[in-house]
Amino acid sequence: MNPVTNIWNHPKTSAAGLLIAIVTVAGVLSQQGITLGTAGTGTVVTLVSGLASALLGLLARDPGDEPSSTGSTAKLGAWAMIALLLPLPFMGGCSAASVAQNIVNWTPALQGAVATVNSTAALLDPLDAPIFVAATVGFDAASNLLVAQAKAYLANPTASVLAQLQAAVVAFQQQVNASLLSAARITNANSQQHVLNALNAVGTVVSAILALVQSVSSKAAVAQMAADSTIKLAAVRPYLREDKAAEMVAVHYGEPVEMARMQVAQAEMSAVQAGF
Hints:
Distance between the termini: 48 Å
Order of helices and strands: HHEEHHHHHHHHHHH
Strand order of the largest sheet: 1-2
Number of domains: 2
Number of helices: 13
Mean pLDDT: 80
Structural class: mainly alpha
Number of strands: 2
Shape: globular
Radius of gyration: 21 Å
Largest sheet: 2 strands, antiparallel
């Protein structure tokens, strides 16, 4: 078929293909360290990639305008799946400065989630509350340290400060994983619901920060971080609430929940492949 005619007859599909090409090329340029200059706290390449990803998500979510709804929905559904599998906003192609700012941007959500943990014990069955309190006793200190290290890295994004941030986020991740395992000891259904909601909120933010830290860490550093993670994600998978995580990510980055849900799954897969 004539390319011009094809574009004319299938404008949405063609536009989606163009946007995917832009995102793919931007990803390759970022991996090679090509930035094309700065844009705000990031680079031109990451800005273009982000805009293309957002437009692709919007395009994929609106398939109902074409007459042949079945065919067009199927085609755009495929484009939507590709769009949803694009990297998370916190996973690639950013400078150290923009990643540092992104980490700091997550810290209010972290502090709010930890505050919720602190108030959750009062909602639990009296027999379950001590288990939960004991499992989360170090959350305040871990949260304060991670926030401090994030701000320190923003002010001075050097290798030595990054090493401290790597250690802080892995330590907190392990505390969250250990607390999730402790949820198995809580048998009251209502109590367990409150516990898992609170712990998953903290875990979502810590996972987002961990992914950000990974994106600016060397392969050797990531391998060491994974080695220090003795409680692996596979062990806590039964207690993870991907739907809640997707909602938090979607709100934080201002994107559709459907896209965030697939991106959270992709981030988890990437973490497992890295050894976490």
